[in-house]
Amino acid sequence: MSGETLTSGEYIKHHLTNLTFGKHADGGWGMAHSAAEAKEMGFWAIHVDTMFWSLLLGVLFLYFFSKSAKAATSSVPGGLQNFVEWIVEFIDTSVRGSFSARNALVAPLALTIFVWIFLQNLMDLVPVDAIPLISGLLGIHFMKVVPSTDPNATFGMAIGVFLLVLFYSIKIKGVGGFVGELTLQPFSSKNPVVNLLFIPINFILEFVSLAAKPISLALRLFGNMYAGEMIFILIAIMYNAGLVLGLFGGVLQLGWAIFHILIITLQAFIFMTLTIVYLDMAHHEH
Hints:
Layout: H1 8-15, E1 20-23, E2 29-31, H2 35-40, E3 46-47, H3 48-70, H4 79-98, H5 106-122, H6 130-137, H7 151-183, H8 192-237, H9 243-282
Antiparallel strand pairs: 1-2, 1-3
């Protein structure tokens, strides 16, 4: 992007394209230098920027929370310990309110999901041209810095939660109990023949409901964050449209950034809460 003059369409397309590593049409492996090349790489391509920023934010989360735990004191706590204790208490309250079974994994999982997604979403407040400009100077063609605007990241997290739901559904209820939930509700009859006829209907309805959980979980987070990123990009275009529109764009950007803080937090909270609820459902007979 450095040194290039882009049209509005090219600017938007550039900022919405991931830094992609995969197999080129000639059989070689390497980075894509255009959106078309990235598309040709297909399913097995890797979005390097999504992987880099999500892992970096995960490491920062572990580092600061580990540092706070090691330095925890029963006397007057420091600012970091106060902040971490507040988040842990908030997560603990949420888990106690939504999860009625006993599972030592749920609270740490909820904490990890909330903080990690919040940090990913928070990257949306970084000026849209700052990191891509630095990357362009270093010879890196594309750089998306908000991992939650990549459906690969949101689906990856949602599928991970879904696998845990399946695991605990089978562990707690057994294979028979889990299959029974998919085939013997919502329709049932005391007549065994009629009940047998209801099984495929019940299975279709319950399977759709089950499969919708990870899809809705992933698409809700992706859709909200992608829309937020798009608005920031459209506002940034206004800076090149004259002084008046540039000043108006600055006011819009400030207002949207303040409002977006609510969206960033809310989307992390919703993902965490639904994870807790789905795991709670997996621990109980229906």
